[in-house]
Amino acid sequence: MANQTFPGGISPGHFKDTKDKPIESLELPKKVYIPMEQHIGAPCTPTVEVGDYVKTGQKIGESDKFVSAPVHASISGEVVDIVQYNHPLGNTSQTVVIESDGQDEPDYQDEEQTVNLDSFSAEEIKNVVKEAGIVGLGGATFPTHVKISPPEDKPIDTVLINGAECEPFLTSDHRLMVEQAEKIIFGLRAIMKAVNCDRGIIAIEDNKPDAVEAMNSLVTDDDSLEVMTFETKYPQGAEKQLIKAALDREVPSGGLPMDVGCVVNNTGTALAVADALRTNKPILERVVTISGPGIEQSGNFMVRLGTLASDLIEQLGGMGDQTRKIIMGGPMMGISQPNADFPVIKGTSGVLLLTDQEVQIFEERPCINCGRCVDSCPISLLPNLLGTFMEHERPDKAEDFNALDCIECGCCTYICPARRPLVHYIRVAKGEIMAKRQNK
Ligand code: SF4
Ligand code: SF4
Known about the structure:
By secondary structure, the chain is α/β, with parallel strands linked by helices.
């Protein structure tokens, strides 16, 4: 039987040359730039001042709002500045700058402890997750403690661990599943306990047989856990598409996975939950795929948050002269950067250095009404029309045609032979529709 999937989607090619490269550590950064906004929700306010000494893992920013996540020092040393600095999602953000003392003195337990989940209540797990600043590490950066605290009228029956990693180039989740399967399973069990459910699924695309094998080897004697493999197709890793493929449930328009009894977490997020429970270690580093023809030494690297991409690139042999585009994340949903002076944040799954060859495919021509964007849309929208509406500055029409349901997967833009920037038009439409609603 063919592996499961969802309607629509595209096959943009893999480009996953780094999939067999084990996760490597890099030199401790001499300086880190840690933004107070690394999550969806209220930004944090610094809890330190210039001149303070901080340990690795010490909390340096927090908010009293529920939808937020604290941020922590990723190295030990002195706070040398608190400034507005480049943010990879655009513009600038309040940023705590720490200069390393070279000691990397931890503010958490250095040694992993054997932890029995029976000794934690659901509330205690949620609290540990919150204090550790854990957010969706697939790139969405929604605070995990909020995600695992559904209201009472939304019971959860299934937790899915999203190991699809359908974006071309990115392989950080793949490597984590191969190298850290046990921790991911522990994190999954902890999340299942937090949401009071007894079914866990690890969802993996069928282009990662070694990850499937690694995860399968740990679930064979546990009936509550299952590894599912899915057809390799973009955007298999989008929450709604994953739920459709795994459980044949449709998340309603404007709804959330909890509306159909599900919680979806990324593999890195599950691993971070395990770390927080076993060592009290907050999110202070993550695996980043650094790839593309513009970088000499590509691979998967454990990177301290706040490290500048420019420092990473320098350590890895520098940026090739042919580099035309730098992207934070994958080529489909990632954010194009004006330069490499941006810090790695919790949502940085990759840093890509692309050359002319990859960039030229995005040059725009007039629509030829081929309909391919419509066929590729996993939400069954009409991207061609949405684009045309926005060319004529008609967000009201885009709203009538459900622009707000767009998951910004980029399939329509990718498949379009005229290279029309459809997802850009739709993002603009969504922004204008939301602004109009807020004004009302
Ligand atoms: S309209 Fe939105 S959801 Fe549909 S393919 Fe384009 S980006 Fe994806
Ligand atoms: S895929 Fe591009 S060219 Fe074809 S209908 Fe959609 S917008 Fe037009």
